[in-house]
Amino acid sequence: MSSLLGAMHAWQSPRALAVLALLILAILLLSNLRSPILLDHGLQQEHTGADRTKWPPTLPPVDETEAYWLQTSLSGSFEDQSIEIGQRAGVLRDWIQSYDPYSKALHPQLHAESIEKAAVTLFPFLANTLRKSKSKNPMENIQPPFNKSSRGIVILTSVKTFRQTFHLLGALTEVVLTDLPIQIAYSGNDSLRSFQREMLAYRFPSISFLDISTLFVDNSLPLETSDSALKILAGLATTFEQFILLEANTVLLYRPDLLFKQSAYHRTGALLFGRPVQSPMRFPATYPPEVLTSHSSTEWTQGSDVKKTQYLQEKYWSVVVLDKSRVDVLIGLLHASWQTILNGHGRIDDTAPDREIDVWRLAFELTGSPHGLQTPSAAVIGWPRHGAEEEICSFADGYSEENGTLLWYTSLIVRKDEPSFGNDNVPTHRVVMLSSQEVLNGKDILCTVRENARTLTHAQQQIIQKTAQKAQQLDSEFGLANMHKSLTSSDT
């Protein structure tokens, strides 16, 4: 007892108290340091996944689990494999989020090298990535150190969409006047010819190019045929920390920067936009809805009509907004990439319009990765139908932000074969799509009842008109229409 009292007395000395204060300060500073993830790739730790009620989680040992994954090949249906990969990816996420090189006491079995090895075992295509840095760390190849201000736009482009890309770039830089840097993603010279890249760079000198094939050198990857696969792989390949994936047929009514300001994006780092399917009987789900409802606990699925129907009721188009620095988003991207690789091996039908929708949904839902879904965000953007004034018809789907403001629609801004719904090519009305659409004359013409239709504002119609005029100007300046016809006819 006397020795204990002596020790307590010693700690009451000013010098001892000063040492103790310094120790406490050091502990607090270390605890507030941003823990590097996978050799400090700049990933944000987000403890907001499907099950975060207990943190830190009880983690399985990395080496033993990786060995089990290596020895236990996936089998069964695509749905079964997707579920298993999703569960394994969730374990990988927990390892990444729990890894802290400054403190080995909490999870001493976590080592960056072991986690990297497990990631490659789970997603083998990571072993075949190659950047100019020639890093031996495959996850580092996909997640290089980020400049925290790196926000940008990624546009997937090919020979077939070259003309539309020209139009979109004209609208982005000279109509809506975005300040965001723009990256043109393609896959090798056959995907986008060198003279086409030269034309784009000449007309829009501020853009940069991203050749996906220079990052993914695995010949088994679907880098030539699947646009949905390339769109997802472009998300992995881009060096932007936060980015908007755009398809070339997007017509913007406002600066795309607004997408980064959506509350769902701030909350989750992943924002998708939804619309009802045109015809459930024409476009059935690639997988049964119970795959999601039984194996996902994310907020969206539990409140979705997927549980009530035999078909998926939402589909996503054109625009995806992602923050790749968040672990949840990265894990979702990896799962989506795994699906596209199976697709490249002929395992999944890529001809159905909802194929890409299934990929994104499976990726985020089955890995338990939170994401925002703007639905119902879609609308028919068009004109009253001649002979049926109670209907609004168009080739275009429109999408809104969370407060209902129409942000963009998907369409060819210049169409030679567009029927004369109105007096000119500028849409006049918008109707939110709350039910399925009919298809007229075998063409993808969307029609819906005129009830609750809204007239587009004068400012919105002006933006669309200026965008169309810019597209016509570029067509005339570079002969894009004839070039498109020549190139696409030679490819068929």
UniProtKB/TrEMBL annotation:
Residues that span the membrane, as ranges:
none
Protein location: Membrane
For this protein, what is any one GO molecular function term? Answer: alpha-1,3-mannosyltransferase activity
Protein keywords: Glycoprotein, Glycosyltransferase, Membrane, Signal-anchor, Transferase, Transmembrane, Transmembrane helix
Question: What is a single cellular component term in the Gene Ontology annotation?
Answer: Golgi apparatus
The biological process GO terms on file are: protein O-linked glycosylation
| Membrane-topology descriptor | Single-pass type II membrane protein
Q: Which domain of life is it from?
A: Eukaryota
User: Which family does the record claim for this protein?
Assistant: Belongs to the MNN1/MNT family.
Q: What is this protein called?
A: Mannosyltransferase putative-domain-containing protein
Its ancestry begins with:
Eukaryota, Fungi, Dikarya, Ascomycota, Pezizomycotina
